[in-house]
Structure to design on (836 residues):
């Protein structure tokens, strides 16, 4: 596919090294003109002299200082060099000396100042004084931080002292400064509640779970840029890229541009698997559009063909893989052939065969996956099959290869000093996913939550949002923390204002490849807002004052005042976290490139390629656990584990097997094998502190739901402009992409009497959402794409007459979820589209 057929260029999703912004409107244009001219190599084309920005020697616009920080949005982890004059932001520039970033930034960089200079920011703690929960008429009054802390502490202690501590829950989010979750975990351990949860089940936990089960660590296996230990390029050296369920051009644009630059040198081929054409697919050699939620079948068939045709790496398998013979027998027994998969996916068998041969024949070959795989009913099993592909072809532990599953697990838990205080025994946690909070509150099963604290937006991010809204209306006590009065704030009893990324020092976002930056604070905090780590330390000190059971000293010793300064907190994280000893603040501040974990000593370069047969990896592996000495793979056997007796036993309690059996969502058209959930609860083998519902696999599907709802819907990011809900609170975000465009194939639209630009309604058995029809021939005729992250509280769009939309996650069914990872199944729901 030629790029110019769809008007796609690198400049379409990344910008040059300067994006000026006062945080209030359109970016400064002259530096952007210069950047575009630089790409064409023709200054005359831009009517400009090379390097001229027309701000040189401007007394008013010459910065008096520049602060190096990091972008808080996607996982490209771009450095932002922020120019200031009189402590006001003049411009945001990229980092030219980072060879991956290459000086570039995407459109979201200019939104960072717009989070600071924003009239809608929360600036003080608030307390509910009147109004029904969820009502637009809810009234709040300003209170002090001390009063907010004491109110929360009194409620938590009351629940603990009346035997209801297990009914306290928290859910973190990816927006928080790194390590805040460790503080939350410590506080919950001291209280005795098991329900400290994270964002994983609505994000990308399944990939990490599958990687850990197969290779030993739940992390993105390879790195962007040069491996400091070998001096060789890693992911840029791949000869083939297989992208499944990842629109990296729009979700990770700067690192995708790095891959394209590498591809230009190596002549690597790129296959993109996605039910709809995206800028990523437009850049590919092959775009493959299966039915939503059928990647599992596609990967099984590729694996079957590679094994049957002996396209695997026998030497690697003999030395480093256990369970290969069992896998071969399993694939043959179930006849997971390309011809079989063609009937399931709608992709021709010849295409599947060609994909398998191209992947197996390229050395090295890299697999990339993102939420398009994570948000499927069989996410864990699908990721496992992708890991098998890499293993049998010898593409693991090799630069330019690997399983690069994007997720939020770097570097796993950040460890604090050992806790001296005794902690009470805790009962079992609520089941993993689908955001089981709502089920608990509404049904009391397995018990009812009474107090919830969140750092995210469950009223937009959770599946079956109408159900979640009803639950939060009935929740006894709710604390919302955030930048703005997002949807959940209307249900809160206490509202706590947090800082944006430019208002704090620390480690915040990171590259998926385990690489992080240090960010310096750019501007003063807005109002009385505080960073999350300070909030939790402050709450711990309020508990110290009010707790009549635990000595105050235990709380204060567990949460020392010195941690209020993030550099002290990070020093302890680096000291106590396995593999992080070399990741000091001083070292990271000196670097123009981020530093990858594991990095055990100040002399260690950090690990780019996990499992690389190289001394730097073996040193790092041993730093994670002394038992790993001499191990290449960090599984019990020291090898890639496709199947073992222990793994089979652990998964069998949940209805799964170590050798995955195909099934899919019951709302995929075609009546394919699906799952049935047991009412009983068992201990989760993936999250052993929690429960899960066992499943019965291979249950015959039926097409009953498709009589009324004949199409398959899927949700995802609206465009490169938006990252979660927060970018919808910036003028640029709403100016560029404030309309929810429902992507519909022209033939499907014609049969429904819908024209391009019509107001439409997408309806599912759970509810309906509105949008604007965007007729797009780059989507399957049986599929509809509904952009997520829109919500009814996003009043910034009123400036542009943007509609206030109900969340897209009104449409999916929360009862269908991956019972191993807890992932919610956003990537398929039965639906229909009607003209509004």
């Amino acid at each position: 596919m030629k790029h110019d057929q769809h008007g796609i260029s690198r400049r379409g999703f990344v910008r040059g090294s300067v994006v000026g912004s006062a945080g209030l409107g359109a970016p400064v244009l002259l530096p952007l003109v210069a950047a575009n001219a630089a790409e064409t190599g023709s200054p005359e084309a831009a009517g400009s002299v090379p390097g001229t920005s027309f701000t040189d020697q401007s007394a008013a616009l010459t910065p008096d200082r520049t602060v190096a920080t990091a972008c808080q949005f996607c996982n490209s982890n771009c450095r932002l060099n922020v120019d200031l004059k009189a402590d006001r932001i003049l411009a945001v520039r990229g980092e030219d000396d980072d060879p991956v970033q290459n000086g570039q930034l995407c459109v979201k960089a200019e939104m960072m100042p717009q989070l600071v200079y924003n009239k809608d920011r929360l600036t003080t703690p608030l307390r509910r004084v009147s109004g029904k929960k969820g009502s637009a008429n809810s009234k709040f009054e300003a209170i002090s931080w001390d009063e907010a802390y004491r109110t929360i502490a009194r409620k938590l202690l009351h629940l603990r002292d009346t035997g209801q501590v297990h009914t306290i829950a928290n859910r973190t989010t990816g927006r928080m400064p790194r390590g805040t979750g460790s503080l939350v975990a410590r506080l919950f351990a001291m209280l005795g509640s098991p329900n400290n949860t994270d964002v994983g089940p609505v994000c990308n936990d399944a990939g990490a779970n599958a990687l850990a089960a197969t290779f030993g660590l739940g992390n993105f296996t390879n790195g962007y840029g040069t491996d400091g230990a070998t001096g060789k390029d890693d992911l840029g050296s791949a000869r083939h890229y297989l992208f499944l369920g990842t629109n990296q051009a729009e979700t990770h644009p700067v690192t995708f541009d790095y891959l394209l630059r590498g591809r230009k040198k190596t002549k690597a081929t790129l296959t993109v698997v996605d039910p709809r054409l995206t800028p990523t697919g437009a850049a590919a050699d092959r775009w493959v559009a299966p039915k939503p939620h059928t990647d599992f079948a596609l990967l099984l068939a590729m694996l079957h063909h590679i094994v049957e045709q002996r396209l695997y790496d026998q030497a690697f398998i003999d030395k480093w893989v256990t369970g290969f013979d069992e896998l071969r027998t399993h694939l043959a027994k179930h006849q997971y052939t390309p011809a079989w998969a063609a009937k399931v996916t709608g992709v021709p068998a010849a295409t599947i065969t060609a994909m398998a041969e191209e992947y197996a024949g390229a050395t090295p070959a890299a697999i990339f996956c993102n939420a398009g795989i994570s948000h499927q009913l069989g996410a864990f099993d699908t990721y496992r099959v992708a890991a098998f592909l890499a293993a049998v072809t010898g593409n693991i532990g090799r630069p330019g290869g690997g399983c690069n599953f994007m997720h939020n697990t770097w570097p796993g838990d950040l460890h604090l000093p050992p806790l001296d205080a005794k902690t009470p025994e805790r009962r079992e946690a609520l089941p993993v996913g689908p955001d089981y909070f709502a089920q608990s509150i509404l049904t009391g099963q397995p018990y009812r939550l009474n107090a919830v604290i969140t750092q995210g937006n469950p009223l937009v991010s959770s599946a079956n949002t109408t159900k979640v809204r009803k639950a939060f209306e009935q929740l006894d006590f709710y604390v919302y923390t955030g930048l703005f009065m997002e949807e959940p704030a209307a249900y809160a009893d206490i509202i706590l204002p947090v800082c944006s990324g430019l208002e704090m020092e620390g480690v915040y976002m990171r590259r998926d490849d385990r690489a992080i930056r240090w960010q310096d604070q750019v501007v003063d905090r807005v109002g009385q807002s505080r960073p999350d780590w300070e909030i939790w330390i402050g709450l711990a000190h309020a508990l110290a004052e009010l707790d009549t059971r635990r000595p105050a000293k235990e709380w204060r010793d567990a949460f020392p005042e010195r941690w209020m300064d993030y550099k002290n907190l990070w020093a302890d994280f680096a000291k106590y976290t396995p593999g992080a000893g070399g990741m000091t603040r001083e070292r990271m501040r000196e670097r123009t490139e981020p530093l990858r974990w594991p990095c055990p000593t100040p002399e260690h370069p950090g690990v780019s390629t996990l499992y690389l047969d190289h001394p730097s990896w073996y040193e790092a592996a041993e730093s994670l656990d002394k038992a790993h000495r001499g191990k290449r793979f960090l599984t019990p056997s020291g090898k890639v584990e496709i199947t073992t007796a222990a793994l089979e036993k652990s998964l069998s309690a949940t209805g799964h097997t170590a050798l995955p059996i195909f099934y899919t969502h019951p709302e995929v058209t075609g009546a394919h094998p699906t799952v049935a959930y047991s009412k009983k609860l068992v201990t989760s083998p993936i999250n052993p502190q929690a429960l899960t519902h066992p499943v019965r696999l291979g249950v015959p599907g039926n097409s009953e739901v498709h009589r009324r709802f004949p199409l398959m819907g899927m949700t995802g990011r609206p465009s490169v402009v938006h990252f979660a809900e927060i970018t919808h609170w910036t003028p640029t975000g709403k100016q560029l992409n404030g309309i929810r465009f429902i992507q519909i194939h022209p033939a499907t639209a014609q049969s429904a009497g819908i024209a391009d630009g019509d107001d439409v309604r997408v309806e599912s058995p759970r509810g309906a959402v509105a949008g604007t029809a965007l007729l797009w021939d780059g989507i399957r005729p049986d599929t509809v794409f509904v952009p997520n992250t829109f919500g009814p509280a996003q009043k910034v769009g009123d400036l542009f007459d943007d509609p206030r939309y109900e969340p897209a996650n009104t449409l999916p069914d929360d009862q269908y979820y991956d019972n191993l990872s807890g992932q919610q199944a956003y990537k398929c729901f039965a639906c229909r589209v009607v003209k509004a």
The CA atoms of residues 587 and 602 lie 8 Å apart. The chain is about 30% helix and 15% strand. Residues 1-12, 19-50 have pLDDT under 50 and may be disordered.
